Amino acid sequence: MHQAAVTAKNVRVVRQGVKALAGVTFAITPGKITGLIGPSGSGKTTLMRAIVGAQELTGGMLEVLGLSAGSRQLRSKIGYVTQSPAVYDDLTTLQNLQYFAAVLGVPKTDVERVLKQVDLTKQASQLVGSMSGGQRARVSLAVALLGSPELLVLDEPTVGLDPVLREHLWALFDSLAAEGRTLVISSHVMDEAERCPELLLLRDGKVLNHGTHSELLKQTGTPNVQAAFLQLAGGAK
Amino acid sequence: MSPRRTLATARRVLQQLHHDKRTIALIFVVPLVLLGLLAWIYNQTPVIFDMVGPALLCIFPFVVMFLITSITTLRERSGGTLERLLAMPMGKLDILLGYALSFGLLAIVQATLATEVAVHVYGLDIAGPEWFLIIVALADAVLGTTLGLLASAFARTEFQAVQFMPAFILPQVLLCGLLVPVAQLPTVLHWAANCLPLTYAVDAMNRISFETTIGRRTCIDLFVVVAFAMVAIFLGAATLRRKTK
Fold first, then answer.
1. Which of B84, B86, B240 to mutate to probe the A interface, most A CBs <10 Å?
2. Percent of chain B at pLDDT exceeding 90
3. Does A56 contact B at CB distance below 8 Å?
4. What is the DSSP letter of A222?
5. Is residue A84 within 8 angstroms of chain B, CB to CB?
6. Cβ within 8 Å, pair A70-B243
7. Which of A142, B133, B160, B221 could pair with B200 as two cysteines, CB 3.0-4.6 Å apart?
8. In this structure, are residues A164 and A203 in contact, taking their beta carbons and an 8 Å threshold?
9. In angstroms, what separates the C-alpha of B90 from chain A's closest C-alpha?
């Protein structure tokens, strides 16, 4: 646990002539939840896609679990949840999970485990297309939990969920971190940022601040992440 | 490549279709109805039905499989599941072979049904063995699947994917020998026809309907169709990108 889970050095991404990431540098602590916080368009999704190896870099260096991002060996070590659920609408929850479990080569018992973790055991035989947005998001999350990957990259996993469910998922994220897994969770909701021990604040493709939650508040002399973000963003102008 | 992942993908595609019974019904019933219509049109001249019937038996699976595959793969791209699979330890070929396998199975059923009904209900006259007709139809369905996979790589929307049908498929149907025997086409078109896979499939079908045994030329035809399908699979795999720019 000495090495950083993700190390970025001056990572730049230009997509269709638009600068999505303008040179970001940071190191993500392993075994912790790091909140990737910023408004929409700040580069959160691009950064996450770069970490999982789906986005080509224009420049810079990005290392994940000690390997170059996008390495073949990383494919079974990272669980990735995209913003819109990437699951098959015309399959049941169980069929979705069984398929991805077969692709990953994980035991069938894993399917039951992840169903319990996201609280969808009762909906196992329901067609995903007939489910609510929140339920579909949880099916997508369950897929990412298959095989217990070392690193979980979750793009706005709690959007649109009812507060009870959100609590349930955050408890799940805490327990995963307690098991030693690294989680990178993006959000544009500042009250969720309060739950992350580590924070990476992004704006306009640049890192506004990176450090622990308490350091951020101490540095800025603000009572919460929202105020800290405003102060840093104001200073950046 | 791994057989486990290929088979899992084939199984998954069939499960998806299982939840969409109307599509399955359309795949099986539409060719039967169209063949029936054709038999009826040529009611007074069964000789002509015997001439165009075999060609159509291999054009139907080809067109249907092309359409379904290009749309399903496009859905997989836009829905994000393709990106998810490619972020997993999944071989590109496993995805394509999985699709080819499941649609190939579907094509066997479709081709068998269409051939049996054409021969025994509509009175299509075939000199050669029926089972070889089914094999050629199957090879054609797989060709349609692989070309559909390849075409979907160039489509950004469902509208574009549907337009690829007339763009990729219709020229082949026009030139394959269905309207005018390939040998009687103007020279340039003759050359063009010789470069298109459907020409060989239709030639094989015609040979089976006239020759009682399976000749060398028929085998070469079949081989060419399979070779085109293989090339399309590899080209299709090459269009799948794990990383975007």
1. B84
2. 35
3. yes
4. -
5. yes
6. yes
7. B221
8. no
9. 6
Q: Do B81 and A88 touch (CB under 8 A)?
A: yes
Confidence band of B75 (pLDDT split at 50, 70, 90)? confident
pLDDT at residue A1 is higher than 60: no
pLDDT of residue A235: 66
Alpha-carbon distance of B65 to A150, in angstroms, equals 40
How do beta strands A198-203 and A33-37 pair? parallel
Helices (H), A71-162: 93-104, 109-117, 133-145
Mean pLDDT of B95-108: 88
Residue A37: what are its φ and ψ, rounded to 5°? -115, 135
Token couple for A183: 């989680």
Please state the pTM of the whole predicted model: 0.89
**CB distance B65 to B103 below 8 Å:** yes
Number of Cβ pairs closer than 8 Å across A and B? Answer: 77
Decide if A60 touches B, using CB distance below 8 A: no
CA distance A227 to chain B (A): 35
Task: Provide the pairing of β-strand A18-28 with A6-15.
Answer: antiparallel
CA distance B203 to B172: 13
Instruction: Tell me the shortest Cα–Cα distance from A49 to chain B, in angstroms.
Output: 9
Which positions ≥6 away from B124 have C-beta within 8 Å?
B39, B49, B50, B53, B54, B118, B209
Give the ipTM. Answer: 0.89
**pLDDT mean over A121-141:** 93
